Structure formats: C-alpha cells, structure tokens
C-alpha cells in the first residue's frame, strides 16, 4: 500500500458536467433544460434535436462521465487517496441539486468541484458556478446545513490533459494515407461562443481580443503542434477554428466554422486535415455530429481526406492530473507552498475566479468564486 495522500481540508470531489439525453424521450425535455431563458431560435432547436435522434436520442456524454468516474476512483485507490467522488449535471440526471443534497446527507462539508470543461468562458465556468449557487439556495431553503464549495482551477494546460491529445493527433496523422500525411494541416476545434462572451472571458485583465477563452485554446493548440513537430520532424501548419455555432444569425460568434475552414483549405490545395477537438473534454454530441458526421461528410464531398483525433475522456493520465490538482489545491488551502504544474506560455490559472470573471448578460449569484454569497 502506498502512503496515504492527504486531501485535507477536502472531504469529497464532485464532477460537475453538462448532462445529456439517454434515449429518444429525453431529447426534448433535455433541450428545454439547456435553452431555458437562453434565446435560442426554434429552428436551431429542431435541428439540434435531429442530431440527437440520429444517434437514438443518446448523447455519449453520460457514459464518458461514468468512465471518468471509474478512472478517478481507480486512480485514487491505487495511490492511497481516500476521497469519495460524486457526479452531478446542469441539464440532466443525476441533477446537481440532488447530488449536492446527497453529499450533505453523507456529511460532506468541504467539497472540491471538477468541472467537465477545461477553459474559461461563461458556459464552461461561471454558469457552473451559478448552478452551484442555485443548488445551495435550494438546500438552504430545505433547512440543510450548507457545505463549503471550491472549484478546481482550469486544467487546459495541465500535462495530463495535453499529452493524451498530442498522442491522439499523432495517431490521426499516422492513420492518414501516407501520400497525404506530411502535407496534412491540423484544425484545432472548439465550441464557438458569441464574440462578446469570448472577449469578456477570464479575469478583467484578460478581456478583449477573444479573451482568456481564445488565448487558452491557442496556447493548447501551439503546445500540441510543437510536440507533434518535435516527435514527427514534420511541421504541420495549424489553425484554431470553431464549431457548433448557435444563437441568432445577426449576433457575431467566433469564426471560422470548421466546415468553411475545410472548404478553404481544400481550395488552397491542402491534401489532408486532422480535426482535433481540443475544446471538448470527452466525446460529446458536438463531436459525434458536428465533426464525425457533418464535417466529415463535407470533407468527403470535397474529396479531402480527414481524421478526427481523440478527446481526453477517461484517459488515466487525465485522472492522475485531477489527483495532482486536488493535492495542489489542498496544500494551498492548508497554507503550504505549492508549485502548480502547467505547460505553455500562460502559466497555471487562478484558484478563485475574481469578481468580473466571465460575466453573465444578467448578473446572478455564483458560488465558488471571489463574488460568492456563500462562505
Ligand atoms: C463553450 C461551450 C461548451 C464547452 C464547455 C463545456 O463543456 O461546458 C459547451 C458544451 C456543451 N454544450 C452542449 C449542448 C448544447 N449547447 C447548446 C447551446 C450553447 N452552448 C454554448 C457553449 C458551450 N457549450 C453556447 C454559448 C450555447 C448557446 C446557448 C447558451 O448561451 O447557453 C445547446 C442548445 C442547442 C444549440 O444551440 O446548439 C445544446 C444542446 C453539451 C452536451 C452535448 C452532448 O449532449 O453530448 C455540452 C457538453
Ligand atoms: Fe453547448
């Protein structure tokens, strides 16, 4: 048995994710949960519903999260970290509020949250903090004693997150026909968001020019491209592009879209493209539909060979990274000195979101940040 690892003062980890439907009957209520108050056009909703129905109404996201929970529990057990792991979602069962209630009833008082989103943005960070505040408000109204909740820092540049993606891109390159391989470009993709949200992502000092959201993705893309060049000896040109645009057409979102990018690369004579979905922690419907179905069909129509590289998912190196992040945060909470582990040019992200980080259109209470109304 290895020596026990110490997560004090924390007594539980909560994986906080988006949630997804698990059958055809779930699709419409799920989409209603996602889009309540978000101003998504009806047409867009119908279209996205079809993406889910094409896959039997089942999103891959819940099974991906179950696999990640298994990987985390195995990693913690193998390394003597005695920390129970729970799972709650924003938009589908198991719902965050139910999980948090269960945690409180189990006596958990100091909870660390792992968000299933690696980068700064309203959708990937503050909205989860708002969900935590809503859940705490519900428990408070039920007369339960509230736990203290902290959120782990953004892990986009942690080696345990980046390394599996480097390996994934190498595998996709190797899988391309040899005659097009060395000329292949890499299209790093992430979820498009409104340019106004991108520009205000991260702490105030990062605002402007796509904000922390774009800067963090560019840093990861560069890390992967550099590692691929070092390991193959081939310099594959790359670009950060976007996918899964939603919202009203007159509102600007981040561009170019992956499909337009494939067209443009093809017209420029590029012989092949690897699509690397660095914005997604695991295989979501956006990966299965927008990349594996839509963009792949577009490429076939163009006669452009493409491959889609793997997401991190339940990779054991990611589970080990989560353990590292927990121990780092626990030490820092205990007042011990820590050297946070991070690759790239940006350094380790903040532990506590400052006031004004990734602001919402309409301000709402958010937990686990400097502006939290909860202790
Ligand atoms: C940045 C970002 C992430 C990455 C960070 C993270 O991982 O959290 C993400 C993840 C996800 N988004 C998901 C699904 C959806 N997102 C939608 C709508 C939107 N996403 C947005 C942004 C993001 N979304 C935005 C700005 C909107 C517009 C509406 C709004 O401002 O809120 C809609 C409505 C229909 C549509 O318009 O597409 C759906 C169905 C799923 C589940 C997939 C599955 O089932 O496998 C996941 C993991
Ligand atoms: Fe989304």
From TrEMBL:
It catalyses: Fe-coproporphyrin III + 2 H(+) = coproporphyrin III + Fe(2+). Its EC number is 4.99.1.9. Fe-coproporphyrin III binds at residues 59, 128. It is found in: Cytoplasm. Fe(2+) binds at residues 191, 286. It comes from the Bacteria. Pfam families: Ferrochelatase. It is an enzyme of class 4 (lyase). GO terms for biological process: heme biosynthetic process. The keyword Iron applies. Pathway: Porphyrin-containing compound metabolism; protoheme biosynthesis. The keyword Transmembrane does not apply. One of its GO terms (molecular function) is ferrochelatase activity. InterPro entries: Ferrochelatase, Ferrochelatase_C, Ferrochelatase_N. Its main location: cytoplasm. GO terms for cellular component: cytoplasm. Keywords: Cytoplasm, Heme biosynthesis, Iron, Lyase, Metal-binding, Porphyrin biosynthesis. HAMAP family: Ferrochelatase. Belongs to the ferrochelatase family. Involved in coproporphyrin-dependent heme b biosynthesis. Catalyzes the insertion of ferrous iron into coproporphyrin III to form Fe-coproporphyrin III. This is Coproporphyrin III ferrochelatase. It comes from Streptomyces actuosus.
